[in-house]
Amino acid sequence: MTRPTIRTLVAAALVATVAIVTSGCGPSDSVAEQYADGSTKNYIGGDGTVVEIPPANRGEPISFTSTTDLGEPLDSADYDGDVMVVNFWYAACPPCRAEAPDLEALHQQYQDQGVSFIGVNVRDQASTAVAFAERFDVTYPSVIDITDSAVQLAFAGQVSPNAVPTTIVVDREGRAAARITGRAEKSILNSLITTVLDETP
Prior knowledge:
Glutaredoxin
């Protein structure tokens, strides 16, 4: 009986590890596929899936506190009564860079209509997040969530931000109303915001 070589054992172990890491991931752009095609982008990307939650099926209000990339405190309670658009991102993520101008455009469009945008940086230090905001002219605040993942955990029980980017629309009562997993296409996000804005408080 031929004994397996060390190279064969290492290859088998890598395949097994990838299978374990990606089981249940969901998005089509998985780590397993990255391994198979030789990609090294190092993130789990979403496929643009949109989930809308009817008002009767929404969970409890989501609350969180954190610190922005400018060192300022941010409390979700300060946005009570607003529709919130919460975008989970980091600077080296290609779809995060691609969607940044659209998110800023929608922020400008809705900022006087009771809609607040908040970024949640899941990987970078504050200086990197600030440089990103300057490069892409992003004017809404982003919190740095790398230390304790407090904002990610606040959403995890209801609509987990399980890919980067993920964008969650929160209704006026602080409940998750919709989620886009992957790059937020402008017209789709605009429609989701409009739907939640039109709901009777």
